[in-house]
Please model this.
Amino acid sequence: MKIDRIRWAIRFAGLVLPMTWSPGSLAAQGAAASAFGVAVRTATINQTAPSAVLPTDGTLAQSQANDVRVGTLVAAQDAFATATGATDDALSDAVSSATLGTVSILDGLITADGVVAMASSTIDNSNAEGSSLANLVVNGVQVSDPAPNTRVDLPGVGYVVLNEQIATAGGITVNMIHVVLQQPVLGLLGVITGYSTTGNIVVGSASSSVN
Amino acid sequence: MSNLRSLVGPMVIVAIAVVAWSCETHRTALAPRTGGPLFQFLEFQCAPLKITGGGRIDYPPGGPDKNPPESHTYETFGAHVVASGQTDADGTCVAEQGALEWVDHRPEMEINGHPLNLHATAVTFAEQATDTDCQDGAARWGGKLRVENTGQEDLNFEVWDCDNGEPGAGHDGFAISVPALGYRVVCPDPDLPPTEPSCTLTGGNRQFHPTH
Model:
């Protein structure tokens, strides 16, 4: 009789336990997405517009601005920022985009007339497909379809990273135009010993992740 | 004990039957009607669903390759829809919630010097496609929208929404029609993936969530 009870218990466990199992890949996944058109950070300026962040209920957020101006640092038209997605275990997804029309940075040092930053993440994939720059001119030189993380020096100003793509935890951030403002660090006798960063300008940024 | 054991088998069978029954889709015959779906492709059923995400389409032609950026021939959007699979008194498969933000960047579509910008004010219906090449799920859904450039409101719209695997770029699809504007971004080209009227995403992702 005791053996029968043990057998019954084993059969019961064999029936119930598989129902409680879930594979690791189905553990709770969190979707995050955000985008912005223009961001400027200097010692005296801290401005971002327009921007959108995926709400916690996982629906959709959008913001737009027909005109974005930050002194002589940035002027941009028709900026849209969108963040969408949902947290749903293995089906979680996040997509964000920032689009702009005409853009002028540092009083025309860098110009473009169509910027698209797009980031997309699912559980096993993140990419910046769909991102593009139209009629980009940097310091008087036309730059077509720059490869990811293309750096161009800007004498007297710093440098710019074009189509900047940064891997993040479970996702990606793409900054289509990222200007790093620098000033020289002078040593004894006025010799330049290095450069210090004094600010950042980002035009067209999209981030997404699923963790 | 033996009586209890004899009950386990039938109970398991009943439990499996109940679960299987609860997973059965609620099929409903949906006839075209005034103010209803605009796309008349394939077959649809009123079933619970959720589709999320956004992306980019390069239309025309709407294929998997991007147009030259200098042409500004592309559209970007964010969109989601949630439906519980319930019909209203008119037989419309009701959407519980949804949103659509659509921007057409083509110069010829500009209004008042700015890109055409469509914003859904209500998402009213959603039907799941049952006979589709979109491998992870597809639906048509729609409602009312506003043209942000002009303030025109209460315009009927409908989208075709397709999740055709990962990644979304080059696989998933989306299409939109706003009859009152004569505006259509639709790609019924059978040579393009997927073969339904949707245009192929060149960026982003559509994610179908079977909300059982």
Remarks:
- Chain B touches chain A at residues 1, 5, 8, 12, 50, 52-56, 66, 69-70, 72, 74, 76-80, 97, 99, 101, 103, 105, 114-115, 117, 166-170, 201-205, 207-209 (CB under 8 Å).
- The helical segments of chain B are 2-23.
